[in-house]
Amino acid sequence: MREIVMSILAGILVGIIFKLMKLPIPAPPVLPAVLGIFGLYLGGKIAEMVLQMWGK
After folding, report:
1. Residue 43: is its pLDDT beyond 70?
2. What is the pLDDT of residue 32?
3. Going by C-beta distance under 8 Å and a sequence separation of 6 or more, which residues neighbour residue 32?
4. Which of 14, 20, 34, 35 has its CA 20 to 30 A from that of 43?
5. CA–CA distances in Å: residue 6 to residues 3, 24, 28, 48, 49
6. What average pLDDT does the segment 21-47 reach?
7. Higher pLDDT residue, 45 or 29?
8. Number of structural domains found in the chain
């Protein structure tokens, strides 16, 4: 839970800094970004399951 809160706070801080410096936010469009993160997580879980099935 602490990691989640720290990640959100870091994101908010970076967003504020970029906005104050009048720079574009360094993030892809929302839906593709969320789906990309979900894909990374899902891929890691699948790899973890496969490794457990192979006994490694």
Report:
1. yes
2. 85
3. none
4. 14
5. 5, 22, 21, 26, 28
6. 87
7. 45
8. 1
pLDDT category of residue 30 using cuts at 50, 70 and 90: confident
AA letter at 17: I
- What distance in Å separates the CA atoms of residue 52 and residue 30, rounded to the nearest whole number? 33
Task: Name 16's Cβ contacts closer than 8 Å, sequence gap at least 6.
Answer: none
Interval 14-37 mean pLDDT: 86
Residue 29 domain boundaries: 2-53
CB 18 within 8 A of CB 26: yes
What is the rounded CA–CA span in Å between residue 19 and residue 52? 45
CA 45 to chain centre: 15
Give the type of residue at 43.
G
For residue 37, give the amino acid letter. Answer: I
Q: What is the CA radius of gyration of the chain?
A: 17
